[in-house]
Amino acid sequence: MNPTDVKRIVGLVLVVVGAILLYFGFTATDAPLEQARESLTGDYSDRTMQYLIGGAVAAVAGLGLLFFGKR
After folding, report:
1. Domain limits of the chain?
2. I need a labelling partner for 26 at 20 to 30 A (CA). Which of 8, 18, 52, 54 fits?
């Protein structure tokens, strides 16, 4: 297995993990308690933000490896 294949596999795994984290983050934003907190404080809980930011970072890193990891 050459290094390009390893980069592709890692990129694909990061995209999948990122998508899962984003799903949990967006699902958490719809929870009644989370919506009440957002209405009162103007922002989401730390855990929800970690899901959203972590998912976005993982997905972007994975896409970067998939598209630019061939070099």
Report:
1. 3-68
2. 8
